[in-house]
Specification:
The complex is a heterodimer. By secondary structure, chain A is of the alpha+beta class. Chain A contains 16 helices and 18 strands. In chain B, helix 1 packs across helix 7, helix 4 crosses helix 7 and helix 16 packs across helix 19. The chains are: A alpha+beta, B alpha/beta.
């Protein structure tokens, strides 16, 4: 018998078609899925569904259209600092694909790719390649290791190594649209059952649709191809550290030619002191000042001395046949970075004894790690917001931005934690705002800090990349209205009843 | 209902529970949550149950007891927790509270008492193990904990780890060091070959193994069962004995071959914090205790070639990986002797042994054991190695691949006898004459395949 609650009717219909264990209305579960780390109230879903196949996802979409219920698809729900697994709006039904759609569908050793369901984590893929004694390696993030490879790529996340552009390394998707259709993108769109080019070619007949499904709500991606790099015989990480905040400009100037020429095949990170050290230490002055002020300069300096690191630490890696074979490259890079006389090389033997540098060692050598996320304990109370802005790889621009952003964080009584992930032309500036979510004043300051940083970057013509769910509307309002209307038009074409995550990335 | 655990400890348990901020990283690495996706069988869910239970004046609910009992205490959650929650303090405190509340049915309480007594008293365990072997068939038909005991008594590892008839080596004439070898109470009966191997290994490099009288049990097993008072008695007894031997200069270290015990000894300062009179002795013991793999890489060991290129699937015991944070030393020690160490999938997940867990929660333990054994066997290794006897017994139940303690392999590679099941091992030929050896380049960054063509 129908109830007066469409969620309950939806859940009953889903249970009838997919089985009782495919959906839950359990109070405990809904509470947990509503939790996140952002400075706002928890966002409790209406139900949580656990599909086990593309067909099951299709069924959920069909039922959502029938009962006019909104879905919020997630993979492994490890999107910490960006919304975790809570939906955009209360009452949306979380479609948790990580629970039962976590199969590695194919590993093509010859062509170097894999085909994954949404729940395959970096750890699982790493372990599977080890098990197969594969010559391929993954490009892990700095954590969490249980995060979804597919979701990270779709959310335009980045990793380590030469294949760090995860969305760029994706190729060929299967997508359930909001209207219930299932499509294969790229060469997979050919009718028939054989598609040898699906996961090797991005440039098939017609428009490249794949981009539509990154950072959007136009469909639910249920499988995707990811390219994998052959593991080099030897990977040699390198580290340099520089003493002063203003050194960032010169560092970035020195990174650019190394990346433009591909002399260094991995992305190169220029990470500030507190971004690194917060993974090993807690805020030493928090108890004394109640979290109302940012760590003092003296406190920062003391931490840097304790770990032997400067204000900025540069990390990357080179590939070769052996350690001896790559040594000339390392020497050349050292000569390049140390030319100003300000920096210091951290030899590998020393780096291995500095806990915060293990993150870069592991991730650059293809090993998933969780170490970086220890930074979330820098302040108590479990609050974290990630802000991903960026800039051209130009020292004057990057340096000016870091000075202004640093001041904004200090003005809000919060620490400035930044890692610049540098490619040849663009440097992603990953800011971590760590705060006490249980302290209303501190949470309000964190919220204001995020918005001030977002405005700073937008005023200088710089947009964010990945964004926390509670700020999707804020950022969408920064865009030209024509683009907002274009997104809405695509949405209404592919998802006419708006059943897939309305509001995600600001798209209604 | 009166509060049943010491007030200051209850406060610290509550503080630890309060520090959980629900990031949720722990769920994905919790063995029981990974199996069934049940919120209350995740660390977060259990912390909520423990907090509710400790704040209540009512007896622990059956649901709280059930879900807290299902925790393996593997501490995988603690390794991944970004908020630094001391989960071990929470689960130990919650179990102590349940135990003291006496809410379990009488039969369960009797069984738990018997198990704790039996497994921590070698003089009882020895005849009980013999009787168990005789009654294996009848007990096996009973199912439940008794059936699990019967099944465990048939584990191939027990035969593989049984003592040999050969005499222990003579102590070195001029020892460079004197150490006590921590003899786990159950291991001394069920896995005597492990410490026999350790003794041979240490003697070979001039270290004398000294017996310290008065140490019966480290208290780990009882602690994990919530039997805090009995555990504390054993801990105090051990501390007094070892500390006296250290102070008198009879020994300079306590070497552990059973990481389940070693990981608890390393927590003695916290566990015995309400015994201030013992604090200096406790600190002395804690500082002197090391896992055998921590010292092995620094010993002047010479490989005989007997175990050269042996393919070892190395299982990280939870007590080593999560409790003691020791991952590299065993790999380094084996690698230095020319043994090929292979990591296994899901190395963060428990094998299901977990002290008495495979007796008291046999259904979950069985699933975890099968999963672990499948991963460990996947690369077709010559042997599966671990640093804790319980893991070896558990894994051996689900795979035909031989198992061995890490120290047995170190002993064999340097002149000792081969572990049982490896008697016919012949070192395979090297891959190619000009291939670089793995030891020539850093372990974490260089592949060992010798493939220079990518």
């Amino acid at each position: 018998m129908p109830s007066n609650d469409p969620i309950v009717d939806f859940a009953n219909a889903a249970a009838a078609e997919l089985g009782a264990d495919a959906i839950t209305l359990g109070e405990d579960v809904l509470g947990r899925y509503g939790e996140h780390t952002l400075p706002g109230a928890d966002v409790r879903p209406g139900a949580v569904a656990y599909p086990d196949s593309t067909e099951a996802v299709q069924t959920l979409v069909r039922l959502a259209n029938r009962f006019r219920v909104q879905l919020y698809p997630i993979s492994n729900g490890q999107n910490i600092g960006l919304g975790t697994r809570s939906p955009i709006r209360p009452g949306q039904v979380v479609v948790d694909m990580g629970r039962r759609m976590n199969r590695i569908l194919e590993v093509n050793e010859t062509l170097g790719y894999c085909v994954l369901e949404p729940g395959v984590s970096f750890r699982a893929m790493h372990d599977e390649l080890r098990r197969r004694e594969s010559k391929l390696m993954i490009s892990p993030t700095a954590g969490p290791s249980q995060g979804s490879i597919l979701a990270n790529a779709l959310d335009k996340g980045g990793g380590s190594g030469a294949y760090a552009d995860h969305f760029g390394m994706s190729c060929g998707m299967e997508v359930v649209l909001g209207n219930g259709d299932v499509i294969r993108t790229g060469d997979g769109s050919l009718t028939g059952s054989s598609h040898p080019n699906w996961h090797v070619s991005k440039y098939s007949f017609g428009p490249t649709l794949d981009g539509l499904f990154s950072q959007s709500n136009f469909g639910i991606v249920t499988r995707m191809g990811m390219w994998l790099m052959p593991r080099p015989p030897h990977i040699e990480p390198f580290f340099f550290t520089f003493p002063d905040d203003e050194d960032l400009g010169e560092i970035v100037e020195r990174i650019r030619p190394l990346k433009l020429s591909n002399f260094v095949p991995t992305l190169v990170r220029a990470t500030n002191d507190l971004y690194l050290l917060s993974s090993a230490a807690t805020h030493p002055e928090y108890a004394a000042n109640g979290g109302r002020r940012a760590l003092s300069d003296e406190g920062r300096a003391a931490l840097r001395r304790q770990y032997g690191l400067g204000s900025w630490t540069v990390s990357g890696a080179v590939y070769g046949a052996s350690r001896a074979a790559v040594q000339p490259q390392i020497d050349r890079i050292a000569q390049h970075f140390l030319a100003s006389g300000k920096g210091r090389q951290i030899p590998m033997e020393e780096a291995e004894d500095i806990g915060p540098l293990h993150i870069a060692i592991n991730s650059n050598t293809g090993v998933p790690t969780d170490s970086e996320l220890k930074m979330l304990g820098w302040r108590p109370g479990g609050g974290a917001i990630w802000l991903s802005a960026g800039s051209p790889v130009a020292g004057d621009i990057v340096n000016a931005l870091q000075a202004q952003a640093r001041r904004i964080c200090q003005d809000h009584g919060l620490e400035y934690l930044l890692s610049n992930v540098c490619g040849a032309r663009f440097a992603r500036a990953i800011h971590a705002i760590i705060y006490n979510r249980e302290d209303p004043d501190e949470a309000a300051r964190a919220d204001a800090c995020y918005r001030a940083l977002g405005k700073l970057f937008a005023d200088r013509g710089i947009f964010v990349g990945r964004a926390p769910t509670m700020y999707h509307g804020f950022h969408q309002a920064q865009r030209m209205p024509e683009v907002v209307r274009a997104c809405a038009s695509v949405k209404s074409a592919l998802d006419p009843n708006g059943v897939i995550a309305p509001g995600k990335y600001g798209i209604e | 209902m009166p509060k049943t655990i010491t007030i200051h400890r209850q406060e610290s348990v509550r503080a630890a529970a309060e520090s959980c901020v629900h990031f949720g990283f722990c769920t994905a690495v919790c063995p029981t949550y990974v199996l069934d996706g049940e919120e209350l069988d995740s660390p977060r869910g259990r912390i909520a149950l423990a907090r509710e239970m400790l704040d209540s004046n009512d007896a622990p609910s059956p649901a709280a007891v059930r879900h807290l009992d299902r925790c393996l205490s593997c501490l995988s959650c603690e390794t991944t927790c970004a908020a630094g929650v001391s989960y071990h303090a929470i689960i130990d405190g919650a179990r102590e509270h349940i135990e003291k509340a006496k809410v379990r049915p009488l039969t369960q309480r009797l069984l738990r008492t018997a198990l704790a007594r039996l497994l921590t008293t070698p003089t009882l365990l020895r005849p009980a193990a013999a009787m168990g072997r005789l009654l294996r068939g009848a007990l096996g038909r009973l199912g439940g904990p008794l059936g699990a005991l019967a099944s465990l008594s048939a584990a191939p590892a027990l035969a593989a780890l049984a003592p040999r008839t050969v005499a222990a080596p003579q102590p070195p004439a001029n020892p460079t060091r004197r150490v006590a070898l921590l003899d786990g109470c159950a291991q001394s009966v069920l896995g005597a070959e492990i410490n026999a191997s350790a003794t041979r290994l240490l003697t070979r490099v001039g270290i004398e193994v000294v017996s310290v009288p008065g140490v019966q049990c480290c208290g780990a097993l009882e602690l994990h069962m919530g039997r805090r008072e009995a555990a504390t008695r054993h801990m105090e007894q051990a501390v007094r004995s070892w500390s006296a031997a250290l102070e008198a200069g009879h020994i300079d270290s306590i070497i552990s071959t059973t990481s389940g015990c070693g990981s608890v000894i390393k927590r003695y300062e916290e566990l015995l914090s309400d015994r201030p009179a013992l604090s200096a002795q406790v600190r002395r013991v804690v500082e002197a205790t090391q896992d055998i793999t921590q010292i092995a890489a620094g010993l002047p060991l010479t490989a005989t070639g007997a175990a050269l290129r042996l393919a070892v699937a190395y299982h990280d015991s939870c007590s080593l990986k999560h409790g003691l944070k020791i991952e590299r030393p065993p790999r380094r020690a084996l690698g230095k002797l020319g043994i090929e160490v292979r990591d296994i999938a899901e190395s963060h997940l428990c094998c299901g042994s977990a002290g008495t867990y495979n007796i008291l929660e046999p259904a979950i333990s069985d699933r975890l054991g099968q999963r672990k054994a499948a991963h460990a066997s996947a690369s077709q290794p010559d042997v599966i190695a671990a640093g804790n006897m319980g893991c070896l017994v558990q894994i051996s139940r689900y795979t035909p691949v031989p198992v061995a303690h890490t120290v047995q392999l170190l002993d064999w590679a340097t002149g000792g006898p081969p572990p049982r099941g490896l008697d016919n091992f012949q070192p395979p030929p090297p891959l190619a004459a000009d291939a670089p050896t793995p030891a020539a380049t850093p372990v974490p960054t260089t592949a060992g395949s010798g493939d220079l063509l990518w």
